[in-house]
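Handout, section B. The chain below has 744 residues.
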Amino acid sequence: MPEIKSPSRAELSDFIQTHPLFAGLDRIVIENLVDNIEIVSLRAGQEVFAYGDPGDSMFVIFKGILGVTIPGQGDGTEQKIAQLEAGEIAGEISILTGARRTATIRAIDDTVLAKITRTVFDAVFADHPENLKAITAQIRRRLHENQMIRVLPGVFGPMPDEILEALIANAVYIHLERGERLFKQGDPSDHLYIVLSGRLFYNVFSDDGSLLDSAEIGFGESVGEMGILTGEPRTADIYALRDTALVAFSSQFFLQISNRHPGILQNLSRTIVHRLQQTMQGRPLNQVAAQLALVPLSPETGAFGERLTEAIQNLGFSALYVDPDRFERSVLIPNAAALDLDDPSGIRLQSWFDEQEAHYDYVVYLADPGPTLWTKRIAQQADQVLFVAVSDDDPGLRPVEAQFGARPGGRAVQPALALIRPDGSAFPSGTGRWLDLRPAGRHYHLRAGNAEDLDRLARHITGRAVGLVLGGGGARGMAHIGVIRALQELGIPVDRIGGTSIGAAVGGQFAFGQDVDEMVATNKKLDHRSSYDYTLPIVSMMATVQITNRLQEQYGDMQIEDLPIPYFAVSANLTKASTYVHQRGLLWKAIRASGGPAGLTPPIFEDGDLLVDGGLLDNLPIDLMRDLIGGGTVIAVDVSPPVELADFQDYGPGLSGWKVLFNRLNPFQPRLRVPGIVSILHRAGSINTIFQQSRKLTQNKADVYIAPDVDAFDFLGYSKTDELVERGYQAAIRDLSAWKNSPA
């Protein structure tokens, strides 16, 4: 068999100088590359590299053809995905990112390759930062092309190869720096964009300049598709939250390619319809933020990041944990974590970040405990920030926290806070000390080494949290207890709970740690007539001393922020004509305020305002729960009948209370069927939200809507607690089982 002829130095030099990847490099750089290139000759069938090999070199095809394959579906087979010919390159992305090979490449016929090792690459460009920046930008463009090939089917749907090739050929790559604007409201809609890496946000303003809407746009999502289809000007200002790479297609080209392949237009139309449905149903448009920065505020947090990453993986996501040491081992650049963001190697490092974002569903970065350059880099990379501390440490602000402040467009990060209890105690304490010093972000309690708590945090981070919303309805709310029993039997976790009126009471009992039997026993006590302490009706019909005393005895000084499971209650602010959301403060006081019908019980005084039953404004706070859990699952339980107070006789335009009293004292007269003042006041207090939130609309807002058959039960029918619990249980088993078994 004849020997494969290698190129001369002159031939190799000409080849490299005229190659598009190396165009524009200084002559001395090209000559250094040529002097250090290794010529590799392969016969047909020989491997260049295999899937999973270290990414330590790149290859330029001088002569021959290479075949590219990836592993099959775990059956030992391979799938051919590409063919590379003379002049094309293999492995160039790995030389930037340090990632292992994602494919196997073999020679199809006799092939000659110019091999550039990572060592040679680093040495040649060490003294030529501008040349390094230029070639890195070229390679990064190829990385973005690969990312585009991955995301296009998700945006445009399946397509023939010729359509994909046309899209690639007509793509315009755009890079936005952090805070840079893509377009402004009112601009012409001349391009469609797709996010390849990074994150955007948009603001929509009214004519008077007030903010109407705002949301974020992440990897693989399209931007500007509505304007392309309608021809209308842009309806929002869009900025880069962090360094962002996009691919753009002109409106003219998009319409041409859509005519050739109508499936693109159909798929994009489905995206628009889906977003409109999400908006109409009060669901968030934000894609779950997938780049998480863990910021240790205590030295004893240990391997928390690794365990959290495992919990995310256990939910079925691909996830990568990165600390400074692992980062430097991956990029193979000495002291890479300590490099300034403006260092010439910065674009090379950013390529590594882009590759991880494209490859993994979630990347968890561990920041340094102090304000270092690594922490600064992570702060610019992260979409979510989680401060991690031991709960009994000093809650004072740490210098590192200042690096995770404002983002472009004035959008606050509002880092979440994870407080670990090293003793594993059931109830946290002193959470308010931490929250008083920090922005009003979410907080989570975890017992050291407790997998259940870590799983709950992982669900919140990944948009998989389950929020349970319990509505008002008096004694009918005992059905909520049956729903909780069904959830536990079906193995469905409750990661956040909240409600209004009796829903706030039952939700508080659950968050406080009561089991189903304890909740039943607690609420049966409400049937005692001693609870109804009527008084001279100047402020209210009841003094509510007995109920208040029982709540104080049950919960003591328990603060809402100290509950192991996140909780909220909703009351109505009479002073300001608005809803009041209790997420901090005394638990008993929140329950008492949320369940105090105006006129029946005295308002609760809080911060100078008067608070009454939340059913007046929001009897089933689905929207609030949706905001708190983002893309998670909202389960709503509605126990307020759409029709009530119907079974009464016509007693005329006026009615004397004395007449009703004497009628009830006289056993020989037919009983007057008239509504009681307690029922009237309670119904009047919730009728507005029952009217505003029709059951059909409410049902659409929740992922699982449960309406137990409790309409026939009395508002004060706590003597029927056991039957109400069973009604809730049966309805929940039916609806939750159907939801679990429905297609995803």
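Note. The longest strand covers residues 191-205. Compare this with the example in section A.
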